[in-house]
Specification:
33% of the residues lie in helices and 8% in strands.
Length: 171
């Protein structure tokens, strides 16, 4: 599952009441690569102005927020074990966790600490009774916009966290 995030990650684009290229260019590239138009958008840094929200909705995008942002984008990046100890107690039913696999405008960045964090966190959450689901499954929304291409399935995968117990519905 792939969602949109902005083409240039610049705060100026988010603040301008008329800037749209950062959204349109991102959607165009993703549509070209995956053959579908995402229906999900995570605002860079979580910043969202009223006019940015209007632009996103006009393009058929659901705005996805999160309740936990791991510190794996910090420099220096904390060790995977430290991020695990920080993250695990914060997870609750319905949590959406943001992980980072790079830095803004970096051509290449490998972050083994994030990989280590995930290798520790996923089994620990499962042991606590959490089920890992996609954001669309968690929020009961489509991952992709109506696809004009016949035969397109729209099935991809990402992580979100939800407790399996019906007595604890997502918040």
């Amino acid at each position: 599952m792939i969602g949109a995030h902005s083409m240039n990650h610049a705060r100026v684009s988010l603040l301008s009441p008329t800037a749209t290229a950062h959204i349109d260019d991102c959607l165009s590239v993703l549509r070209e690569i995956i053959g579908q138009t995402p229906a999900l958008y995570r605002p860079p840094w979580g910043w969202l102005t009223p006019w940015e929200a209007v632009r996103l909705r006009r393009r058929g995008l659901q705005i996805i927020r999160w309740d936990i942002e791991t510190p794996d984008s910090e420099l220096p990046c904390p060790a995977g074990e430290a991020m695990f100890a920080w993250t695990l107690p914060k997870v609750q039913p319905g949590s959406i966790i943001v992980f980072h696999d790079g830095f803004t405008h970096a051509d290449r960045y490998e972050n083994p600490a994030t990989i280590r964090l995930l290798r520790l966190l996923i089994p620990a959450l499962q042991a606590e009774g959490f089920t890992l689901v996609t954001v669309p499954a968690l929020l009961d929304i489509p991952a992709y916009q109506a696809d004009p291409t016949p035969g397109s399935s729209g099935h991809r995968h990402a992580l979100a966290h939800q407790a399996p117990s019906p007595s604890h519905p997502p918040g």
